[in-house]
Amino acid sequence: MSEVSEVTDHTFAEVLGSDVPVLVEFWATWCGPCRMVGPVLAQLAAERSGELAVRKINADENPETTRSYQVMSLPTMILFRGGEPVETIVGAFPKARIEERLDRALTAPSL
């Protein structure tokens, strides 16, 4: 079973260098909607293990990466494919809605 592991400003290169698409959740301990999204992302990580990696980054503790991707609201989820952001989801949504956005971005032709 895959898990949602934490990345930091110093380890974010693992996201950019990944062979599989990576969904990164920008979150904070004080963020209520982030707590709602957490279990959904854990399910996605388990169900899509091998085809999609799921990571999280604490926006308060990692301002460099948070600024780099212009994250202004939490939770923000950014899907990286080939090291590039290809989809951004801002806010807490049901699993079906998140999957719909992911599937659309993952099946779109690469640039």
UniProtKB/TrEMBL annotation:
Statement: the UniProt record of this protein carries the keyword Electron transport: yes
Gene3D superfamilies documented for this protein: Glutaredoxin (3.40.30.10)
Pfam families: Thioredoxin (PF00085)
Gene Ontology molecular function: any one: protein-disulfide reductase activity
PROSITE patterns membership: THIOREDOXIN_1, THIOREDOXIN_2
Disulphide bonds in the chain: C31-C34
GO biological process annotation, one example: cell redox homeostasis
Alphabetically ordered keywords of this record: Disulfide bond, Electron transport, Redox-active center, Transport
The keyword Transport appears for this protein: yes
GO CC aspect terms: cytosol
Highest taxon, organism lineage: Bacteria
Ranges for domain Thioredoxin: 1-107
InterPro entries: Thioredoxin, Thioredoxin-like_sf, Thioredoxin_CS, Thioredoxin_domain
PANTHER family documented for this protein: GEO12009P1
Family: Belongs to the thioredoxin family.
Name used for this protein in its record: Thioredoxin
Organism (species): Amycolatopsis eburnea
